[in-house]
Design goal:
single chain, 241 residues, mainly beta, 4-stranded antiparallel sheet
């Protein structure tokens, strides 16, 4: 189970990492090592080593070394050296060594100094999105996934009880990225980025009912009008329960 827990000290961060949960740092100085997963907000300063994964948001400052993985959003400031990998959505400033790979998901390259910049592929159609994320598609129906609680309810109150066919009551035609539809992930495990799931559902969705946002803040999820057939419960590997 991956929970997101706010921490205020290095000792608290280490305990959260040991429990395999995600540490939320609001302010202060922290060091993330090994397989740590940290989200840094506001004035937090995080130094990442090894294979640590850090999400830098708002005005957080992240210094990354070795093979750390950083996601930069908001007005974050990132300094990276070694074989660091950065997913750039937006930022105030990035200073990178010559072997740092920066996957640019945005349009603005200002503020980036150094590194190897690669523009991310941005799917424009539901079929491209499915191919990009490895989603199974048969007869124009994609098998997507939803993480829910013990009662098969999503955090937004959607009911995904097995053998029912969930549909959005507020479908907006795909206008907004968030809200106005049902949201799905490419795999059961990836639903953990958006909730703390206790159960997983496989959801058949018609490609014609999926909306893709080219400049999405969360390109790893997609929105749809609803399912086109009953959903069924699966485990985290996608196998039917």
């Amino acid at each position: 189970m991956n929970e997101r827990i706010e921490v205020k000290t290095q000792t608290e961060l280490d305990a959260v990492v040991k429990s395999e949960n995600t540490a939320i740092c609001i302010s202060g100085f922290f060091v993330a090592r090994g397989s740590a997963h940290v989200v840094a907000y506001e004035s937090a300063h995080v130094e990442a080593y090894g294979s640590a994964h850090v999400e830098a948001r708002e005005s957080a400052h992240v210094v990354a070394y070795e093979s750390a993985h950083v996601e930069a959003r908001g007005s974050a400031h990132v300094v990276a050296w070694g074989n660091v990998f950065i997913r750039l959505f937006s930022c105030f400033k990035i200073q990178a060594g010559i072997h740092v790979v920066i996957i640019n998901h945005g349009e603005n390259k200002k503020g980036i100094k150094g590194g190897v910049i690669i523009n991310a592929f941005k799917p424009k159609t539901p079929l491209q999105w499915c191919a990009h994320w490895g989603v199974k598609v048969e007869k124009k129906v994609a098998i997507l996934f939803k993480g829910v609680n013990e009662k098969y309810m999503s955090e937004r109150g959607g009911n995904y009880t097995p053998n029912t066919t969930p549909a959005a009551f507020d479908w907006d035609g795909g206008v907004k990225e968030c809200g106005g539809g049902l949201h799905f992930s490419p795999t059961p495990a990836m639903t953990r980025q958006f909730c703390d799931p206790k159960k997983f559902l496989a959801c058949p969705v018609n490609l014609n009912d999926i909306a893709v946002h080219k400049d999405a803040d969360c390109p790893e999820k997609v929105k749809a009008k609803g399912c086109c057939a009953p959903v069924w419960e699966v485990d985290e590997n996608g196998d039917r329960v």
